[in-house]
Automatic annotation (TrEMBL):
Covered residues, full protein: 402 to 689 of 701
Domain EAL: 24-274
Protein name: Bifunctional diguanylate cyclase/phosphodiesterase
Domain of life: Bacteria
Keyword terms: Membrane, Transmembrane, Transmembrane helix
Length: 288
């Protein structure tokens, strides 16, 4: 029976693997025309000051509007695009589109862009970033590049060169998904990050798991000791926000403040943020 079971498991496993690789192959083929056909879209998720709640900027998150299958998550096509090398073209499109969009916002709002391991492994990224900045007219200090640990571990030396070249351009660099990799601390030691983004996995269980609470608290403290501001991802509740405020977390991102929004809705959010700022200025004016 064990053998039968074992074989059945293997069969199911194999067919799943085959199905998965068929899907990946299909995605790779469909993805070929995606950039030229204008099938990629950027969504923008707000990032807010944890203490004042005010809007600071947005993270650009790519989606693929597939002609048959509808909106596809980056989780499903970015890994394929990395395998095929298509990520270079997609990455360039993301950078240029994010910079162009942000250049249309008031100066105080920043944009954060994700880059993946494959992009960091090339020499082209600093030039791509410089081109996106000059084409759009966006000031470098309004752009933040998010990299994950997996993006820098394969060839640390090369990745460090790229990160230093990016910082030379005047853009900031954030460590994304902090705590989920194999050597988050040594990565933090070797790279001059301007921000640490605590992964949402830890934030999710913050109020129910003492372990998660301790990890989040320690990460914020670590950031403070290193002089690096910490952003918490995946903030969904007031309770989580309260904890993060108390611990001195600098900024937050998550459904509590907004899901990733199409460009037009992000612009509406900016308008609303400016209006409520005017109001609070009026109020302080009235008080004075
Ligand atoms: P990430 O950079 O860690 O982005 C945050 C992800 O968390 C986003 O998923 C966002 O929609 C989701 N999220 C935000 N707030 C909440 C929340 O309160 N609760 C929950 N449950 N989830 C939340 P998304 O957009 O599906 O992106 C997934 C990942 O795909 C990103 O993770 C990033 O690693 C990658 N990605 C997205 N856009 C790009 C891109 O342009 N280039 C590259 N290389 N990777 C990208
Ligand atoms: Mg990110
Ligand atoms: Mg992240
Ligand atoms: Mg994450």
């Amino acid at each position: 029976a064990a053998r039968k079971n074992a074989r059945r498991t293997i069969t199911i496993f194999t067919s799943d693997m085959e199905e998965a690789s068929r899907q990946r192959a299909a995605i790779a083929i469909d993805l070929r025309g995606a950039v030229q056909n204008g099938e990629l879209e950027l969504f923008f998720q707000p990032q807010n000051d944890a203490r004042t709640r005010s809007l600071c900027g947005f993270e650009a998150l790519v989606r693929w509007r597939h002609p048959q299958h509808g909106l596809i998550s980056p989780v499903d096509f970015i890994p394929v695009a990395e395998e095929t090398g298509q990520i270079l073209e997609i990455g360039r499109w993301v950078l240029e589109t994010a910079c162009t969009t942000a250049a249309g916002w008031p100066e105080r709002f920043k944009v954060a862009v994700n880059v993946s391991a494959f992009q960091l492994a090339q020499d082209t990224l600093p030039l791509q970033v410089a081109t996106a900045l000059s084409k759009s007219g966006l000031k470098p200090e309004r752009l933040e590049i998010e990299i994950t640990e997996s993006g820098v571990i394969t060839d640390q030396e090369h990745a460090l060169k790229i990160v230093l070249a990016l910082k030379e351009l005047g853009v900031s660099v954030a460590m994304d998904d902090f705590g989920t990799g194999y050597s988050s601390l040594s990565t933090l030691q070797s790279f001059p990050f301007d921000k640490i983004k605590i992964d949402r996995e830890f934030v999710k269980s913050l109020t129910v798991s003492p372990q998660s609470a301790a990890i989040v608290r320690s990460t914020i403290l670590l950031g403070a000791s290193l002089g690096i501001p910490v952003l918490a991802e995946g903030v969904e509740t007031e309770e989580q926000l309260g904890f993060l405020q108390l611990e001195g977390c600098k900024s937050v991102q998550g459904y509590l403040f907004g899901e990733p929004l199409p460009e037009r809705r992000a612009a509406k959010m900016i308008e609303a943020a400016l209006e409520s700022d005017d109001l609070s200025e009026d109020e302080s004016g009235a008080l004075a």
